[in-house]
Amino acid sequence: MAKIKVHAANFPYLEINATGGCLFIKTGLLQMLGETIHGSRLVTIEVASEDSVKKVGNAVGWSVVGGVIAGPLGILAGAILGGNKKEVTFVAEIDDGRKLMGTTDNKTFISLQGAAMKF
Fold first, then answer.
1. What are phi and psi of 93, to 5 degrees?
2. Domains observed in the chain
């Protein structure tokens, strides 16, 4: 389950997660999943910005692997190529008028966007 970092929302929440094209909005401390919003209930979901982010821990891990496999050049290649991740900041509107702006990984955003498409 991917966590969504919420920047703004016009409704109360404690935490918002997403998986399988659904949003899970927790409003209470004792809720396990919270309210489930299927992607088909999203009226709009639009990209606000996309960023490439380098995760330091992943880059270090790839540096070690590169060093074991290819020596000093492998360390450099692992540090440069490892740990890259795309994050998407998006704005979504639910069919009941609630709106949120949040950031999540690219895979989760594409899953939500796909679930929101109406054919």
1. -125, 130
2. 2-51+86-116 (2.30.29)
